[in-house]
Amino acid sequence: MKIRAAVLEEFGKPLVVREVDLAEPKAGEVLVRLVACGVCHTDMYTASGVDPSGYAPTVLGHEGAGVVEAIGEGVSSVAVGDHVVTLFSPQCRECIHCLDPRTNICLAIREQQGEGYLPDGTTRLSLDGEPLRHFMGTSTFAEYTVMPEIALANISKEAPLDHACLFACGLSTGIGAAIYTAKVEPGTTCVVFGAGMVGLGAVAGARIQGAERIICVDLSDERLELARGQGATDTWTAGPDTVERILEETGGFGADYTFEATGLVSVMQQAAESARMGWGLCTVAGVAGKGETLDVIPRWLITGRRVCGSSFGGVKGRDQVPALIDRYLEGEIDLDPFISHSLSLDEVNRGFELMEAQDGIRSVIAFS
Ligand SMILES: NC(=O)c1ccc[n+]([C@@H]2O[C@H](COP(=O)([O-])OP(=O)(O)OC[C@H]3O[C@@H](n4cnc5c(N)ncnc54)[C@H](O)[C@@H]3O)[C@@H](O)[C@H]2O)c1
Ligand SMILES: [Zn+2]
Ligand SMILES: [Zn+2]
User: Fold this and answer.
1) pTM of the model
2) Whether residue 160 is found in the same domain as residue 272
3) Residue 295: partners with Cβ closer than 8 Å, 6 or more residues away
4) Quick check: CB of 191 below 6 Å from ligand 1?
């Protein structure tokens, strides 16, 4: 079929919305009609050409939500008409990692997905007869996409899809970091560095887990205000003295849990150093630049601080995204403040501009 999609033709150039061909879903695959898709930093990062693992041409987009239009042979976990959230982090439910509660990093299709192919090593997208690679296994800046069944979360039909799409990336990453990676305990003190989509999600996750004190640190007053809305008890303007301040406010010990959601190694270091002696856990969610390293004084670890990373918030997507969306439907998470702009597919580059200007948290593309 012919569909309209935002194609990254050349790194560093605006995306081009054009007609491309999309083939029918094969065995284990699903045709999804996109209803909404968030615009995320990872899309912009890839478009810029700075990401060493990026490739072009490709159809970008990975924060999608939509409706199942057709299923390939053997597909059993979704049916035509179901509402789905796309998962760049799939869950096959069979690999050694999927069977282990300690990780959400599914091994089933990593290689093919990383190179822009569907699990059988081919593409369903093409442009003027030439294969066009899929991005993050999702390619959701498009009216329709074909994805592996294992990369779709089957969600409640009650959830508005322009809100549900936030769970496809940043929001789940933040909430999950608090709930599934750090497993924040009630009555504790948490510090969240960064109040973008990921950091605000971590604030919400810490609140849901029953943290007593949630300190959010950012440079933007506007974003710190949003953090208050998600449950931050203290909001601080970031500075070089943040670690000292955290130690002062915690009897010299540090916070039970710290979360880094900026992508800056200097902030990761602050997050590691402000985790509590004895049992403090620093969870790194930000993605640092290629080649950057994190400096941690080993003696800090000896005395009981721990540092861990979190991909997609440790969320096992097919099981836990629907569960998180149910919690949103029950009123536990207010998503409205996150959606700052609604755009058409043709305005996708405007979404990048807004993100660069830090105008709002998320622009969401609405497909008509
Ligand atoms: N681990 C994952 O699976 C995953 C998924 C999505 C995004 N990410 C990464 O998470 C990070 C955050 O994503 P986002 O969408 O929230 O980004 P964002 O740019 O919207 O938010 C980052 C925030 O950090 C703040 N900041 C900048 N310098 C700071 C400092 N010195 N101290 C405190 N705050 C500071 C900014 O003001 C901004 O509000 C990025 O690195 C992104 O690539 C990771
Ligand atoms: Zn994303
Ligand atoms: Zn798996």
Assistant:
1) 0.97
2) no
3) 265, 269
4) no
